[in-house]
Amino acid sequence: xxxxDFSNLMQDSIGKxxxxxxxxxxxxxxxxxxxxxxxxxxxxxxxxxxxxxxxDVKHMGRYARQFEDLxxxxxxxxxxxxxxxxxSLKPFHxxxxxxxxxxxxxxxxxxxxxxxxxxxxxTLINVITKSGSTAETIASFMIMWQRLTEQSLKxxxxxxxxxxxxxxxxxxxxxxxSIRSLPIAPGVGGRYSVLSPVGLLLAEAIGVNxxxxxxxxxxxxxxxxxxxxxQNPALLFSVGLYQMHKLKGRDxxxxxxxxxxxxxxxEWFCQLWAESLGKDGKGLxxxxxxxxxxxxxxxxxxxxxPDDKVVVFLSIENYGSDLEIPKVFENLESLGYxxxxxxxELIKTEQEASEIALTKNGRPGITIKVPEIDAYHIGQLFHxxxxxxxxxxxxxxxxxxxxxxxxxxxxxxxxxxxxxxxxEKREEFVKYRERKRLTI
Length: 440
Fold this sequence. Notes:
Layout: E1 3-5, H1 11-14, H2 21-25, H3 29-37, H4 55-64, E2 69-73, H5 77-89, H6 93-96, E3 100-104, H7 109-118, E4 123-128, H8 135-150, H9 155-158, E5 159-163, H10 169-177, E6 180-183, H11 197-205, H12 210-224, H13 233-248, E7 252-257, H14 263-277, E8 285-288, H15 299-304, E9 309-318, H16 333-336, H17 343-360, E10 365-372, H18 375-396, H19 404-416, H20 423-434
Parallel strand pairs: 2-3, 2-4, 4-5, 5-6, 7-8, 7-9, 9-10
Antiparallel strand pairs: 1-10
């Protein structure tokens, strides 16, 4: 079970920059718990994912393992979730296992062109969009559909659609062409969907037991539903960061896992945190990082730069592998001291050293201790941060499940690309282009 250490948010550890227990008690905890239990937002359906039936996902996963390559088309949570599972649980998979996995999460033409040069005709395409109309994803899907046709390959054999179970253009295509499909429950939003078929199909395709991920999520779930603040890690995380913002002016959340395998997890968290909280002039700015690399590039800023950050460490207890540093260059005092230690010992020491240094300088932090990077604990981390993010949104008084700012950009794109019903947005786009520019 993951454990969360809040000590370095408190005045006892960092002095006047810290919080007191009374600061935690001044929050309406009962209101948050009631919002969740009463399901006042339909998008809280993500809370049910740990107890879903995975029979269809496992069946599709077995089908996917017959292919040489798996190409995932998606953007935002539809890509960051699968990418996190791939990188954290099967690092370097494409060098050692099948199917090789390629995730196309943008519309950069060079990227897709290069992917098309690499993948074989024996490729399965998993197109993921809840709405069934995400422009970036649909554009790449249309290109791949045409490519299959040109190669005389049957789309029904090479495509799995992951989308809304009843509505949307992709659902219509799945039904019309009898394409294999998996549902994203109506109340599960994209950035909260990693523990749905969005992420679980990829997990099964590369040999990760999706049930273990869900078991981890289920085990953390009950703790995060406790009405007792001091027994609820998600509430403590949310209230701690909210009060650091409210009382201490700390608006930036630095997220720094001490493991290369969790770099993508940092990116996944940042989308979840930013898109869920950034509304009505409110929110906390996420800052993706990775240790120990960023000790040599960013730690200086965290230590002595603007005093506006809370650093969230992910500390790994068992890396699953280790290497001993040999006792060479013993005649050089500046190097020889490392001999006889291990790499895991070094990275753990560096993580704790950063924690201590920040604390000595009055800079707050939270440390999340992860026993090991496996399916069980990754499932826990996903579910924990999703619950904590929703709770933080409730504290800010915003809807943590919508994204009105993103929608405006989408609508402008629809208009300029000629989608029916968005003609006014096209005119707005044209007028913007006609503006005088201060360009040199």
